[in-house]
Each structure stands twice: as C-alpha cells, then as structure tokens.
User: Which sequence fits this backbone?
C-alpha cells in the first residue's frame, strides 16, 4: 500500500509499505477519506511530543472495513465507519466514566500509532473493543464524514459551557475549529453568535455559515458590547492559542458566563494572567476541553446530515499530491480543511 510518512519536521515522503494483516480483535480499514487538522500540521512543520517519526499521521478518518481479525464482533465487512481515534486503558476511573479520551494511559491513532494518511489503516484491538468504530450515517459522503471527529470536539466544548437556547455566544478565532464551534453552538440552540477573526475571508465564511456578527479582533470588544446592549455574552470559546484572546473573551463575559480554553497553548504562551475579581464577583467560570468521548462522537455523526459543512472543505488531495503540497499548505494557513482521498476524487 502507499502511505505518506512523516519523517520529522518539514519532511513527508510517500512510501510503499505492506498492507497490515489484522490480528486477534483487530480491524483493517480501507481509507476512504482523511482530514488534515492543526495537530497534523504541527507534527509536520514543528514536531509533536506524541509523534515519533517515522509516523503515518491522520486521525480524522472514514474507512471501509476491509478485513476482520479473529474474534471481532459488532463490525461487518464492507461497512463504512467513522473512527474515534482516542482510546484508553479501559479500566481507570476516567475510562469507566466514559472519558477514554482523557485516560492518562490513553493513545491516539495518528499520533501514538500509525494513522490514516495511507490506503489502509489497522485499528488496534483496544479501540475495537471500546467501540471506536461507528457507522457512517446513510447519505453522508466520506469527505464530509471526516468532520465528525473535529465536530465532536466542538460539541464537547459547547456542552462544557452549557450553551443552550437563547444564549449569546462569542467564538474567538475563525479557523476550522472556530467555525465548527459556531455550528455546534447553534445546534445547541444559541440565539446569537459572534466570531472574532483577523482574516476577512474567514469572517465572510463565518457569516455564510450563519454567524450573526463577524468582527476583526480590534473591533470585537466594542462591537459585541454594542450588539448586546453592554451585557456581553453567556459563553466564550477561545480557539486560538493566545493569552490576549482569553483576556478579550473574559472582558466580554456576562455575569454567570463561562469561558472555554479550547485551544492548546504552546509552552511560551501557557501562562495566562487573568483578573481574579472579574471571575469572583461575576460568578464567571473558566473551563477547558480536549478532544471528545464516544458519546459526543456519536452525537456529531447524528448532526452531520443536518449541517451545511461542505464549505469547510477547501482542498482535496490524492496521496501523491499530498506528498508535495501538505507542508506548504500547513505553513500558508490559506485553507479551512484539507481532505486526503487515497483513491482520488
């Protein structure tokens, strides 16, 4: 099979590898589509602490079940499935409560194990047993199906914020995760959504997707206060790794409001200074979310047929094209979501 290998920062190479044979409890997927996310871009351009090259990246995947190892139940040959990439040890308190994505001994396909930037992907027994292969809804194409994983993360964020009917919401950052968080907030009933983003084309896309007000960062404070009559918003999601974005969000948070640090912060920006009294006297809450659990991934799959997600996919690549284009695209940041289609368009 052909597989795109990350050899280290700035190096990817298309190689021929043997097609894996599933052992007991394992499942072999024929990859139909794989999304390229910010984590993949980081691994390809700067390196990632959990990626040990040579590694096949890719954790947003839709595949067709190509082979079953002995003892596999609940999955059928030829079935189209969405993969939940994070799996846990299966026995710790977090796993027992359904939060396998937060397991201290957890692993992720596409980071700790080889992923989906290839023609075939081997799903380990632990992931199969934990139910990480979910049926793709009827009528959802594989390229749209890869958005289930990031949409699940957005649903997790909005759930943690308690976003509900009528809430005013601010999303800071208009990249793919910012846009998906806006869609997730709307799906939970948010009544008014603003988005802060420095790129004009992304602001235009946000409005096309139904955001009520898209503003440049320097306009956001005054614009949101004016639009809300000075009250601010009930929920803020920060999808960019910038302490100033956190402070902006907190400044616009109404009493009893909640702010989610959705983005992971680089070490040099990890420390954030906040005004304690703004949190204390306003009964405001600061939360964080990482990835999503199985329940949230199922919910995302259920939402896919109801959402207009096509505009988020702005580039489609065959594997041979990805070898030449993925790293330049990662540096350019001119796409929303790139999808790799191993079998071509």
Assistant:
């Amino acid at each position: 099979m052909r597989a795109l290998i990350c050899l280290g920062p700035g190096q990817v190479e298309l190689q021929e590898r043997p097609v894996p044979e599933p052992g007991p409890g394992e499942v072999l997927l024929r990859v139909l589509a794989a999304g390229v996310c910010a984590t993949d871009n980081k691994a390809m351009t700067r390196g990632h602490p959990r990626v040990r090259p040579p590694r096949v990246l890719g954790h947003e995947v839709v595949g067709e079940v190509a082979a079953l190892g002995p003892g596999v139940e609940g999955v059928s040959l030829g079935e189209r499935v969405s993969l939940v990439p994070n799996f846990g040890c299966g026995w710790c308190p977090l796993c027992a409560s359904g939060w396998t994505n937060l397991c201290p001994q957890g692993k992720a396909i596409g980071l700790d194990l080889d992923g989906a930037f290839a023609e075939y992907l081997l799903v380990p027994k632990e992931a199969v047993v934990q139910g990480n292969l979910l049926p793709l809804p009827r009528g959802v194409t594989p390229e749209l199906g890869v958005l289930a994983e990031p949409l699940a993360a957005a649903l997790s964020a909005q759930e943690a914020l308690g976003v509900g009917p009528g809430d005013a919401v601010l999303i800071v950052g208009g990249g793919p995760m910012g846009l998906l968080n806006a869609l997730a907030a709307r799906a939970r009933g948010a009544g008014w959504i603003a988005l802060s983003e420095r790129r004009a084309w992304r602001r235009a896309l946000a409005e096309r997707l139904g955001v009520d007000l898209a503003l440049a960062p320097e306009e956001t404070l005054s614009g949101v206060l004016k639009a809300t009559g000075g009250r601010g918003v009930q929920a803020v999601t920060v999808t960019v790794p910038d302490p100033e974005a956190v402070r902006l969000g907190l400044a616009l948070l109404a009493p009893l409001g909640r702010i989610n640090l959705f983005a992971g912060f680089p070490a040099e920006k990890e420390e954030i200074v906040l005004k304690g009294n703004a949190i204390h006297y306003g009964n405001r809450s600061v939360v964080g979310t990482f990835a999503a659990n199985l329940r949230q991934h199922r919910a995302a799959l259920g939402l896919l047929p109801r959402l207009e997600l096509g505009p988020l996919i702005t580039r489609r690549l065959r594997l041979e094209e990805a070898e030449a284009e993925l790293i330049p695209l990662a540096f350019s940041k001119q796409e929303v979501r790139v999808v790799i289609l191993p079998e071509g368009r």
Summary: The chain has a mean pLDDT of 96. The chain has twelve helices and 18 strands. Residues 157 and 289 are 6 Å apart (CA to CA). The two ends are 18 Å apart (CA to CA).
